[in-house]
Amino acid sequence: MKPYLSVCVCTYKRPHVAQTIRSVLAQEGICHRTIEIVVVDDDPEWSAEAIVEAIAASAPHPVYYVRLGAQNVAAARNACLEAARGSWIAFIDDDEIAEPDWLSHLVAAQMAHGADVVKGFVRAVYPPGTPDWVKIADPYTRDYGPTGARPKMLATGNVLFLREVVERHHMRFNTAFGRSGGEDTEFFRRLRATGLKIVASREAVVNEIVPESRITRAYLVSRHRRMGQIDGLKTRLGLSTHSPIAALGKAAPLVAVLWSYPLFGMLGARLAFRAFAKFWYSIGIIQGALSGRAQDMHEGG
Protein backbone atom coordinates (compact mmCIF):
# COMPACT_ATOMS: atom_id res chain seq x y z
CA MET A 1 0.00 0.00 0.00
CA LYS A 2 1.37 3.40 -0.98
CA PRO A 3 2.19 5.47 2.13
CA TYR A 4 0.37 8.68 2.81
CA LEU A 5 3.49 10.39 4.17
CA SER A 6 7.23 9.90 3.73
CA VAL A 7 9.51 11.22 6.47
CA CYS A 8 12.94 11.95 5.00
CA VAL A 9 16.23 12.22 6.87
CA CYS A 10 19.58 13.13 5.31
CA THR A 11 22.50 12.10 7.50
CA TYR A 12 26.24 12.64 7.47
CA LYS A 13 28.43 11.07 10.16
CA ARG A 14 25.94 11.63 12.97
CA PRO A 15 25.19 8.57 15.12
CA HIS A 16 22.51 10.77 16.71
CA VAL A 17 20.38 9.92 13.67
CA ALA A 18 19.23 6.87 15.64
CA GLN A 19 17.41 9.14 18.11
CA THR A 20 15.89 11.08 15.23
CA ILE A 21 14.51 7.92 13.64
CA ARG A 22 13.19 6.55 16.93
CA SER A 23 11.40 9.83 17.62
CA VAL A 24 9.61 9.49 14.28
CA LEU A 25 8.73 5.87 15.05
CA ALA A 26 7.21 7.06 18.34
CA GLN A 27 4.75 9.45 16.70
CA GLU A 28 1.23 9.48 18.16
CA GLY A 29 -2.04 10.21 16.38
CA ILE A 30 -0.73 8.97 13.03
CA CYS A 31 -1.55 5.56 11.63
CA HIS A 32 1.75 3.73 11.28
CA ARG A 33 0.54 1.98 8.13
CA THR A 34 0.35 5.32 6.35
CA ILE A 35 3.96 6.45 6.82
CA GLU A 36 7.47 5.41 5.87
CA ILE A 37 10.92 6.71 6.80
CA VAL A 38 13.64 7.25 4.19
CA VAL A 39 17.21 7.78 5.40
CA VAL A 40 19.82 8.88 2.86
CA ASP A 41 23.44 8.49 4.00
CA ASP A 42 25.68 11.17 2.50
CA ASP A 43 28.82 9.71 4.09
CA PRO A 44 30.96 7.84 1.49
CA GLU A 45 31.81 5.35 4.24
CA TRP A 46 28.06 4.74 4.86
CA SER A 47 28.53 5.08 8.60
CA ALA A 48 24.78 5.10 9.30
CA GLU A 49 23.99 1.83 7.55
CA ALA A 50 24.28 -0.50 10.55
CA ILE A 51 22.42 1.98 12.77
CA VAL A 52 19.49 2.36 10.39
CA GLU A 53 19.20 -1.31 9.48
CA ALA A 54 19.21 -2.35 13.15
CA ILE A 55 16.29 -0.02 13.82
CA ALA A 56 14.49 -1.05 10.62
CA ALA A 57 14.58 -4.71 11.60
CA SER A 58 12.04 -4.19 14.39
CA ALA A 59 10.31 -0.99 13.27
CA PRO A 60 6.49 -0.97 13.13
CA HIS A 61 6.54 0.52 9.63
CA PRO A 62 9.04 0.73 6.76
CA VAL A 63 12.42 2.34 7.32
CA TYR A 64 14.51 2.50 4.14
CA TYR A 65 18.25 3.11 3.98
CA VAL A 66 19.74 4.68 0.85
CA ARG A 67 23.48 4.78 0.19
CA LEU A 68 24.69 7.95 -1.49
CA GLY A 69 28.02 9.24 -0.17
CA ALA A 70 28.10 12.30 -2.42
CA GLN A 71 29.01 14.66 0.45
CA ASN A 72 26.49 17.03 -1.09
CA VAL A 73 23.39 17.71 0.99
CA ALA A 74 21.37 18.89 -2.02
CA ALA A 75 22.07 15.59 -3.78
CA ALA A 76 21.04 13.78 -0.59
CA ARG A 77 17.75 15.67 -0.45
CA ASN A 78 17.13 14.87 -4.11
CA ALA A 79 17.81 11.20 -3.35
CA CYS A 80 15.12 11.44 -0.66
CA LEU A 81 12.66 12.83 -3.19
CA GLU A 82 13.46 9.98 -5.58
CA ALA A 83 13.12 7.25 -2.95
CA ALA A 84 10.05 8.59 -1.12
CA ARG A 85 6.68 7.19 -2.19
CA GLY A 86 4.32 9.24 -0.06
CA SER A 87 1.80 11.77 -1.29
CA TRP A 88 3.20 14.12 1.36
CA ILE A 89 6.87 14.51 2.24
CA ALA A 90 8.26 15.65 5.58
CA PHE A 91 11.90 16.48 6.26
CA ILE A 92 13.56 16.35 9.66
CA ASP A 93 17.28 16.93 10.25
CA ASP A 94 19.52 14.26 11.72
CA ASP A 95 20.27 16.40 14.79
CA GLU A 96 16.59 16.88 15.62
CA ILE A 97 14.22 14.88 17.84
CA ALA A 98 10.52 15.12 17.09
CA GLU A 99 7.95 15.60 19.82
CA PRO A 100 5.44 12.69 19.88
CA ASP A 101 2.70 14.82 18.29
CA TRP A 102 4.96 16.43 15.66
CA LEU A 103 3.49 14.82 12.56
CA SER A 104 -0.10 15.02 13.77
CA HIS A 105 0.27 18.79 14.24
CA LEU A 106 1.85 19.24 10.80
CA VAL A 107 -1.03 17.33 9.23
CA ALA A 108 -3.63 19.18 11.32
CA ALA A 109 -2.26 22.56 10.22
CA GLN A 110 -2.24 21.45 6.60
CA MET A 111 -5.86 20.33 6.75
CA ALA A 112 -7.10 23.34 8.73
CA HIS A 113 -5.56 25.86 6.33
CA GLY A 114 -5.61 23.94 3.06
CA ALA A 115 -1.84 24.44 2.82
CA ASP A 116 0.62 23.01 0.31
CA VAL A 117 3.55 23.50 2.72
CA VAL A 118 3.67 23.56 6.54
CA LYS A 119 6.74 24.76 8.46
CA GLY A 120 7.13 23.66 12.05
CA PHE A 121 8.82 25.09 15.13
CA VAL A 122 12.48 24.22 15.87
CA ARG A 123 13.40 24.43 19.55
CA ALA A 124 17.07 24.44 20.48
CA VAL A 125 18.34 22.23 23.30
CA TYR A 126 21.68 23.57 24.52
CA PRO A 127 24.38 21.52 26.28
CA PRO A 128 25.36 22.07 29.92
CA GLY A 129 27.79 24.93 30.29
CA THR A 130 26.37 26.97 27.42
CA PRO A 131 27.33 30.63 27.94
CA ASP A 132 24.51 32.87 29.11
CA TRP A 133 24.87 35.15 26.09
CA VAL A 134 24.18 32.19 23.78
CA LYS A 135 21.12 31.12 25.80
CA ILE A 136 19.74 34.66 25.72
CA ALA A 137 20.39 35.10 22.00
CA ASP A 138 19.04 31.58 21.35
CA PRO A 139 20.37 31.46 17.76
CA TYR A 140 19.27 27.90 17.04
CA THR A 141 15.59 28.20 17.96
CA ARG A 142 13.52 29.03 14.88
CA ASP A 143 9.97 30.26 15.30
CA TYR A 144 8.09 30.82 12.05
CA GLY A 145 5.06 32.38 13.67
CA PRO A 146 1.76 31.22 15.17
CA THR A 147 -0.11 28.42 13.45
CA GLY A 148 -1.59 29.68 10.21
CA ALA A 149 0.91 32.52 9.79
CA ARG A 150 2.75 32.88 6.48
CA PRO A 151 6.48 32.36 7.15
CA LYS A 152 8.90 34.50 5.18
CA MET A 153 11.67 31.92 4.97
CA LEU A 154 11.65 28.13 4.86
CA ALA A 155 14.18 25.37 5.43
CA THR A 156 14.07 21.58 5.48
CA GLY A 157 14.44 21.05 9.23
CA ASN A 158 10.80 20.33 10.20
CA VAL A 159 8.70 20.86 7.10
CA LEU A 160 5.81 19.10 5.32
CA PHE A 161 4.95 19.61 1.66
CA LEU A 162 2.79 18.14 -1.06
CA ARG A 163 4.77 15.90 -3.37
CA GLU A 164 2.55 16.60 -6.38
CA VAL A 165 3.45 20.30 -6.56
CA VAL A 166 7.16 19.47 -6.49
CA GLU A 167 6.77 17.03 -9.34
CA ARG A 168 4.45 19.31 -11.31
CA HIS A 169 7.08 22.05 -11.33
CA HIS A 170 10.02 19.62 -11.77
CA MET A 171 11.58 20.91 -8.55
CA ARG A 172 14.83 19.58 -7.18
CA PHE A 173 17.44 20.95 -4.79
CA ASN A 174 20.28 22.88 -6.43
CA THR A 175 23.50 20.89 -6.04
CA ALA A 176 25.55 24.08 -6.48
CA PHE A 177 24.72 24.69 -2.80
CA GLY A 178 25.25 21.10 -1.72
CA ARG A 179 28.51 21.70 0.12
CA SER A 180 27.93 25.19 1.46
CA GLY A 181 24.31 24.79 2.54
CA GLY A 182 21.50 27.13 1.58
CA GLU A 183 20.07 24.62 -0.88
CA ASP A 184 16.86 24.35 1.14
CA THR A 185 16.07 28.07 1.36
CA GLU A 186 16.77 28.36 -2.38
CA PHE A 187 14.49 25.39 -3.10
CA PHE A 188 11.60 26.84 -1.12
CA ARG A 189 12.14 30.29 -2.64
CA ARG A 190 11.45 28.74 -6.05
CA LEU A 191 8.58 26.69 -4.66
CA ARG A 192 7.00 29.78 -3.09
CA ALA A 193 7.21 31.58 -6.45
CA THR A 194 4.74 29.05 -7.90
CA GLY A 195 2.00 30.54 -5.72
CA LEU A 196 1.64 27.78 -3.14
CA LYS A 197 -0.08 28.28 0.19
CA ILE A 198 2.53 28.06 2.95
CA VAL A 199 1.71 28.23 6.66
CA ALA A 200 3.48 27.79 9.98
CA SER A 201 2.64 25.40 12.79
CA ARG A 202 3.99 26.43 16.16
CA GLU A 203 2.63 23.22 17.73
CA ALA A 204 4.63 20.94 15.38
CA VAL A 205 7.85 20.91 17.41
CA VAL A 206 11.22 19.29 16.87
CA ASN A 207 14.10 19.71 19.31
CA GLU A 208 17.49 20.51 17.79
CA ILE A 209 20.30 19.07 19.89
CA VAL A 210 23.05 21.69 19.77
CA PRO A 211 26.58 20.27 20.30
CA GLU A 212 29.25 22.07 22.29
CA SER A 213 31.19 22.78 19.11
CA ARG A 214 28.40 25.08 17.91
CA ILE A 215 28.13 27.39 20.90
CA THR A 216 31.54 29.01 20.57
CA ARG A 217 31.97 32.56 19.32
CA ALA A 218 34.30 31.32 16.55
CA TYR A 219 31.72 28.88 15.23
CA LEU A 220 28.94 31.47 15.29
CA VAL A 221 31.17 33.93 13.41
CA SER A 222 31.81 31.26 10.78
CA ARG A 223 28.14 30.26 10.65
CA HIS A 224 26.78 33.74 10.03
CA ARG A 225 29.55 34.65 7.62
CA ARG A 226 28.84 31.51 5.60
CA MET A 227 25.12 32.31 5.53
CA GLY A 228 26.02 35.70 4.05
CA GLN A 229 28.40 34.10 1.56
CA ILE A 230 25.60 31.83 0.37
CA ASP A 231 23.24 34.75 -0.19
CA GLY A 232 26.01 36.73 -1.87
CA LEU A 233 26.71 33.79 -4.16
CA LYS A 234 23.03 33.61 -5.05
CA THR A 235 23.21 37.19 -6.37
CA ARG A 236 26.10 36.13 -8.64
CA LEU A 237 24.08 33.19 -9.96
CA GLY A 238 20.92 35.22 -10.55
CA LEU A 239 19.06 33.31 -7.83
CA SER A 240 18.17 36.36 -5.78
CA THR A 241 15.93 39.37 -6.12
CA HIS A 242 19.09 41.48 -5.64
CA SER A 243 21.96 42.03 -8.04
CA PRO A 244 25.53 41.74 -6.71
CA ILE A 245 25.85 45.53 -6.82
CA ALA A 246 22.62 45.99 -4.86
CA ALA A 247 23.70 43.38 -2.32
CA LEU A 248 27.05 45.10 -1.85
CA GLY A 249 25.33 48.46 -1.56
CA LYS A 250 23.21 47.15 1.29
CA ALA A 251 25.89 45.13 3.09
CA ALA A 252 28.75 47.64 3.07
CA PRO A 253 26.98 50.33 5.12
CA LEU A 254 25.92 47.70 7.66
CA VAL A 255 29.52 46.60 8.07
CA ALA A 256 30.54 50.24 8.57
CA VAL A 257 27.84 50.77 11.19
CA LEU A 258 28.10 47.45 13.02
CA TRP A 259 31.89 46.99 13.20
CA SER A 260 31.63 48.20 16.80
CA TYR A 261 29.06 45.52 17.68
CA PRO A 262 30.86 44.62 20.98
CA LEU A 263 29.66 47.98 22.32
CA PHE A 264 26.06 46.89 21.76
CA GLY A 265 26.43 44.72 24.84
CA MET A 266 25.52 47.77 26.91
CA LEU A 267 22.06 47.60 25.33
CA GLY A 268 21.46 43.96 26.21
CA ALA A 269 22.71 40.53 25.16
CA ARG A 270 19.98 39.87 22.60
CA LEU A 271 20.53 43.15 20.76
CA ALA A 272 24.29 42.67 20.91
CA PHE A 273 23.96 39.25 19.32
CA ARG A 274 21.73 40.61 16.56
CA ALA A 275 24.38 43.21 15.75
CA PHE A 276 27.11 40.54 15.87
CA ALA A 277 25.16 38.21 13.57
CA LYS A 278 24.25 40.98 11.11
CA PHE A 279 27.85 42.21 10.96
CA TRP A 280 29.31 38.82 10.06
CA TYR A 281 26.42 38.02 7.73
CA SER A 282 27.09 41.29 5.90
CA ILE A 283 30.80 40.48 5.70
CA GLY A 284 29.77 37.17 4.13
CA ILE A 285 27.47 38.89 1.63
CA ILE A 286 30.40 40.98 0.42
CA GLN A 287 32.68 37.95 0.19
CA GLY A 288 30.12 35.83 -1.65
CA ALA A 289 29.08 38.57 -4.07
CA LEU A 290 32.70 39.39 -4.95
CA SER A 291 34.24 35.91 -5.00
CA GLY A 292 31.30 33.79 -6.15
CA ARG A 293 32.16 31.25 -3.46
CA ALA A 294 30.71 30.11 -0.16
CA GLN A 295 32.56 28.21 2.54
CA ASP A 296 32.09 24.45 2.64
CA MET A 297 29.88 23.56 5.62
CA HIS A 298 32.39 20.83 6.56
CA GLU A 299 35.25 23.34 6.79
CA GLY A 300 34.13 24.24 10.27
CA GLY A 301 31.28 26.65 9.52
Structure report:
The chain is α/β, with parallel strands linked by helices and 301 residues long. It folds into two domains: 5-213, Alpha-Beta Complex (Spore Coat Polysaccharide Biosynthesis Protein SpsA, Chain A), CATH 3.90.550.10; 216-299. It has ten helices and eight strands. The chain has helices at 17-25, 49-56, 73-83, 102-113, 132-137, 163-168, 183-192, 217-236, 244-258, 269-291; strands at residues 5-11, 35-41, 63-67, 88-91, 96-98, 117-125, 159-162, 198-209. An eight-stranded mixed beta sheet has the order 3-2-1-4-7-6-8-5, with helices on both faces. α8 crosses α10 and α9 (244-258) runs antiparallel to α10. The longest helix has 23 residues, at 269-291. It starts with a strand and ends in a 10-residue tail after the last helix. The model has no long low-confidence stretch (mean pLDDT 93).
Please give a handful of descriptors for the protein shown.
Spore Coat Polysaccharide Biosynthesis Protein SpsA, Chain A; 301 residues; 10 helices; alpha/beta; 2 domains
Oligomeric organization of the protein chains: single chain
Compressed to H and E, one letter per element, the order equals EHEHEHEEHEHEHHEHHH
Backbone structural class: alpha/beta
Spatially, the strands of the biggest sheet line up as 3-2-1-4-7-6-8-5
What value does the Rg take, in angstroms?
19 Å
Question: What is the CATH C level class of the largest domain, in words?
Answer: Alpha Beta
Whole-number total of structural domains: 2
Beta fraction = 15-25%
What is the rounded distance between the termini?
A: 42 Å
Which word captures the global form? globular
The CATH topology assignment of the largest domain is Spore Coat Polysaccharide Biosynthesis Protein SpsA, Chain A
Question: Could you give the count of β-strands?
Answer: 8
Number of helices: 10
Mean pLDDT: 93
Uncertain segments of ≥5 residues (pLDDT<50)?
none
Per CATH, the superfamily of the largest domain is Spore Coat Polysaccharide Biosynthesis Protein SpsA, Chain A
Named CATH architecture of the largest domain:
Alpha-Beta Complex
Q: Main sheet, how many strands, which sense, barrel?
A: 8 strands, mixed
Share of helix among residues? 25-40%
